[in-house]
Amino acid sequence: MALINISNLTYCYEGSYDNIFENVSFSIDSNWKLGFVGRNGKGKTTFLNLLLGKYSYQGVISTSMVFDYFPYEISEENMQKCCSEFYEELKADSQLWKIICELEKLALSAEVLYRPFSSLSYGERTKVMLAILFSGENDFLLIDEPTNHLDEEARECVKAYLQRKQGFILVSHDRDLLDSCIDHILVLNRHSIEVQNGNFSSWWENKSRKDAFSKAENEKHKKEIEKLKKASDQSRVWANQNEKTKIGFDPVKDHDRSIGTRAYIGAKTKKMQSRVKQIEKRISREIEEKEGLLQDIEAPVDLKIMPQKYHKEILISAKQYKFSYEETKESQRKEILSDFDFELRQGERVFLHGQNGCGKSTFLKSILAHGGWKEQKGVLEEGRLSVGSGLVISYIDQDTSFLKGSIKDFCKYRNLDQALFCAILRQLDIERVQFLKPMEEYSEGQKKKVLIASSLLQPAHLYIWDEPLNYIDVFSKMQMEKLILTYQPTMLVVEHDVRFREKIATRVVEISK
Questions:
Q1: pLDDT by residue (tens digit) across 13-38?
Q2: pTM confidence score
Q3: How far is CA 61 from CA 3, 193, 311, 462, 476, in A?
């Protein structure tokens, strides 16, 4: 057992006005299975890079541990090689037999090590890199979002694998994975950092209680401050009125007054003024106690969506539909989807479920092509696929690599109201300072939020979302769940987050590979 001590850590990006971390101090045990949670852009990956020594910082990070990071960066040259040829470049102390042993625990054959890395699926690449990561000894491992782009079967496999390991930090927005694999949690709150024993659900339960207490205390202080202010104002009025009676009285009306009473009136006024000062001190104390109570409250703004009603009950239908990829020089014709029958009705939220590579995303793109979006190249179709005439579709692509340039240019290209678009980004917790940056500098989670905001601004009959929640933080996922359950748009979704699907889907359609 060893400790990783962080003391007075301060860091900000070059050219930025705001610190990502400011005088942060906490400790981590090297035996922990530590979940790492925070909103997009709060600095989770940055903190891992600070542990790896990639950036200069103020403060102290002291430990005897050696760190290793997932995912490994694979060069273009190595993408064309077999992993057996370059695994030592990724982890110097790894041995092939150990990697093979770890692959067995991940239910993957060793033959993947002898295939070009570029030919492996997302799931296979993830498992190979995890096997290399855990093939060393005594390293403290930094695992950054290992389940993005993985189907449910692969996620379950990775989850079972990590349950048997220890000595790592796991950055993830998958609530199911966090609950299953961690025994401690490190949370980047809005204005503080906390470390707790337990998993995500236990932390969220504690946080909900703490937030409820903070809100109640805040209300109590507000009422007390209001009451004290009224008392202060009344005492001040009385003191001023009393002071005015010291000089200049009418001997007829005030027959009981004399010059000798001035001292008594002065003393009485002084006493009232003293009471005002005491009340003002109490007000200051109440305000001081109230400050900070709500600084870490997670109260996401309610989002809005503008679903339109279509004039027919059935929006999309497929009968004996099949498609295959065209034959190329590199590969033969490959049938993906076969004899598929499908209907999407008004008001349904249908989730397509199946392994990576079974054709879910291609089917969504086929619908877009039939709906007049753009031609889908390299795909041969048979059977019948019909999309309602005049059907307006709002689409989120799982790919974010095309997002480049400024927010202004993006809004102009998509014909969006820039002010409204930026307002939605703020509601999704993207800081205003990000609006000045080119989108290629955004984190993957922030890029996803750009696509979500764009979709929410488009009135549509149907919302087709392809893995919309990859890299999206837990709090924004909850925000999206509330939005969809409130407005109940018609949706066709591919998403592997189990909790999200359980809450949102009205129907799940299985697609076999």
A1: 766 666 788 888 999 998 999 999 98
A2: 0.73
A3: 10, 16, 62, 50, 31
